[in-house]
Design a protein that fits this description.
32% strand; single chain; alpha+beta; elongated
Length: 329
């Protein structure tokens, strides 16, 4: 039996650095998206899905808050969920109203609502009216009890106090009002010191945000006026234009939950000559060229989809689409 003995000699412009397969934690063919090459085919840019992307809420110090009560998914850490002080979305919203609400604005609105109990012009299902005979302020709610056919205004709480002191009972009012009144106060911007959005989780954990308070949602996200304006440097007259659902952190969280996060690698082609010298009589010396691609640049954590995020990545890599040609895998 004749064993073939071969000597292989490599030559290239520079040493070849091979990346072990076990170190390629981000760029692998399972998350490969597309690839481009330069006109001389000496540089290629590969786009991958970033499976290691972090939740954007933990990579920013922007003052934006999240709290949810979904059994299967959460944007909160385990510690935050364990330590939260409230058992439901409604309880959390009640606390936000009590802490950030303007007592005078809320009381004025409920008193105004009390003037329209019978004319159909009430804006929500709670009202404040003064009972002259008992000399108390009554917090009314418009409800229908089990077995009743019609809704009725009935007393939910009363306050033995003067009108000018009623504003100080906001925390008690917040605990008592109905859910639809709570939603109205936030969505009509009566609670002006915060902006709030509601988020929901999809079947696979993807999350979507909608502006305003919806107590049927899975979680709340909010920003506080004083903190937010100080952090962003925005002027106060811009506050009314701010929408939590349009915040960049929120938008990136939506993309992160949908796996719309990408990265790129730039590789340089290195051609080297191979000389294969065989000692067996049947074989002759072989000369051929092999190609290796060396990673010279990479960047990860691009949130988005379509041409916009692609252009952002290529710009970061130092190229434009006009300079590259898309090639097959």
């Amino acid at each position: 039996m004749v064993y073939e003995k071969c000597t292989i000699t490599l030559s290239a412009d520079k040493p070849i650095r091979r990346i072990p397969e076990q170190l390629k934690t981000k760029s692998n063919m399972e998350n490969f998206v597309k690839r481009f090459v330069t006109s001389d085919e000496k540089i290629r840019v590969s786009i991958y899905q970033d499976d290691c992307a972090e939740n954007p809420r933990y990579t920013t110090d922007e003052p934006i808050y999240f709290e949810d009560y979904c059994r299967d998914y959460s944007l909160m850490s385990r510690e935050d969920r364990r330590d939260r002080s409230y058992d439901s979305l409604e309880e959390r919203a009640n606390s936000l109203l009590a802490y950030y609400g303007d007592g005078k604005k809320v009381v004025d609105l409920l008193i105004e609502n009390g003037k329209h109990l019978t004319d159909g012009k009430s804006t929500c299902n709670n009202a404040l009216v003064y009972n002259k005979s008992d000399k108390v302020w009554e917090l009314l709610e418009y409800t229908k009890w089990y077995g009743e056919k019609e809704y009725k205004w009935r007393t939910a709480d009363d306050f033995v106090t003067k009108r000018e002191e009623l504003d100080g009972y906001l925390d008690r009012i917040a605990e008592t009002i109905l859910a639809d009144t709570l939603e109205y106060l936030f969505n009509a911007n009566v609670v002006d010191d915060i902006r709030i959005a509601t988020y929901n989780f999809g079947y696979n954990g993807e999350v979507s945000f909608d502006e305003g308070l919806d107590l049927s949602g899975d979680g709340l996200c909010w920003i506080v006026k004083k903190e937010y304006l100080k952090y962003t440097g925005l002027k106060e007259d811009r506050w009314n234009e701010e929408k939590v659902s349009e915040n960049w952190v929120v938008k990136e969280i939506e993309k992160w939950s949908e796996n719309e996060v990408y990265g790129f690698e730039v590789e340089k082609r290195i051609d080297y000559n191979v000389t294969k010298v065989c000692t067996s009589e049947e074989k002759e010396t072989e000369n051929y060229t092999e190609t290796n691609w060396e990673t010279i640049d990479s960047c990860w954590g691009f949130y988005g989809e379509g041409d916009e995020v692609l252009n952002d990545m290529l710009d970061c890599a130092g190229y434009t689409l006009d300079e590259l040609t898309e090639v097959d895998e």
